[in-house]
Amino acid sequence: MSTEPPPIEVRHVSKAFRVDGRFVQALRDVSLMARAQEFVSLIGPSGCGKSTLLNIISGLMEPDEGVILLHGKPGEQRLGRIGYMPQRDLLLPWRRLLDNILLGPEVMGRDLEQARQEARELLPLFGLQGFEDAYPATLSGGMRQRAALMRTFLCKQEIILLDEPFGALDALTRRTMRSWLLEVWARFRQTLLFVTHDVDEAIFLSDRIYVLSPRPGHVVRELTIELPRPREERVVSSSTFAAYREEILAALGL
Ligand SMILES: Nc1ncnc2c1ncn2[C@@H]1O[C@H](COP(=O)(O)OP(=O)(O)O)[C@@H](O)[C@H]1O
Ligand SMILES: [Mg+2]
Questions:
Q1: Which of 9, 41, 109, 177 could tie 202 with a disulfide, CB 3.0–4.6 Å?
Q2: Ligand 1 pocket residue status of 216, Cβ below 6 Å
Q3: Do both 138 and 27 map to the same domain?
Q4: Cα dihedral 84/89/91/92 (nearest 10)
Q5: What pLDDT digit, counting tens, does each position of 100-149 carry?
Q6: Among 23, 52, 213, which residue has the most ligand 1 atoms within 8 Å of its CB, making it the best to mutate?
Q7: Nearest ligand, CA of residue 22?
Q8: Is the CB of 75 within 6 Å of ligand 1?
Q9: Would the CB of 61 count as within 6 Å of ligand 1?
């Protein structure tokens, strides 16, 4: 096993908010990491601090205690170095699809013509070919999420944070999207931190899973998922899968 420091490490992070004059402890002493090109999921009940943790990792917020390390070094200037698709990711309604997708490279000051060319080549992989000029309001929920994901992947950062990207989709669309996400990830091979509250989704996608307790969020369990890749939908009905599911539900106290 490599002795290189991991691309991303969260060490002893705590965070509280002051709400109406009282403290709400969102995270308590959270430590976790993701290795290069690893797919890591964070699963935990609603309100346990998952989005807060991603806000901290991305650099939008600072922890009260603890540090974020990038390749073993304190990531003080991490804002913009990490790709982040927040939970409420809105495509700009007045921009056409391709222009929405190019927002990431645009903000990052990349060569726009080159990015446009690359985006056009990638449209089929994201199931968006032929919709370049459509406005977000005319697209399905799944298409809008794929566009937001494409925008995030196209920024080409080494580490990507995805906060419940399929949370608002119906069950059937979610199932299609998870297989599809693995194809995309196989192509880009970035280190992924994926937040979800869906147990099957986490097992299906991940190399490793961290289970968080209810607020204040704290890591209660870490599991390595040893299902072979590429993964197909039928793996969900295997006994190994069921055993992982039981383990996670138990850790969640369900
Ligand atoms: N900016 C904020 N100000 C005050 N409280 C917040 C803020 N962000 C999150 N919280 C609180 O922190 C807790 C964790 O929230 P969040 O990170 O959104 O959880 P999750 O994503 O796991 O559902 C909740 O109680 C939430 O109300
Ligand atoms: Mg959240």
A1: 41
A2: no
A3: no
A4: -100
A5: 999 988 888 888 999 999 999 999 999 999 999 999 999 998 899 999 99
A6: 52
A7: 1
A8: no
A9: no
Same domain? 103 vs 186: no
State the sign of the Cα–Cα–Cα–Cα dihedral 48, 219, 60, 181: negative
Domain range holding 138? 90-156
Query: For position 222, what pLDDT does the model report?
Result: 98
Q: What is the mean pLDDT of residues 69-75?
A: 93
Q: What is the pLDDT of residue 105?
A: 83
Tokens 């399929």, residue located? 166
pTM above threshold 0.90? yes
Answer whether 202's CB lies under 8 Å from 224's CB. no
Strand segments, DSSP code E, in 22-141 are 22-34, 39-43, 65-70, 73-74, 83-85
Contact 121, 74 (CB under 8 A): no
Report whether residue 160 contacts ligand 1, using a CB cutoff of 6 Å: no
Q: Is 51 in the pocket of ligand 1 (CB under 6 A)?
A: yes
* Total of domains in the chain: 2
What's the pLDDT score for residue 89? 65
Q: For residue 1, is pLDDT > 60?
A: no
Q: Are residues 207 and 164 in the same domain?
A: yes
Atom of ligand 1 at shortest range from CA of 61: 1
- Closest Cα to atom 26 of ligand 1: 47
Q: Are residues 27 and 52 in the same domain?
A: yes
Do residues 238 and 246 lie in contact, with contact meaning Cβ atoms separated by under 8 Å? no
Q: Is 192 in the pocket of ligand 1 (CB under 6 A)?
A: no
- Among all bound ligands, the one having the nearest atom to the CA of 87 is 2
Predicted local distance difference test score (pLDDT) of residue 154: 87
- In this structure, the number of other CB atoms found within 10 A of the CB of residue 8 comes to 25
Q: Is 15 in the pocket of ligand 1 (CB under 6 A)?
A: no
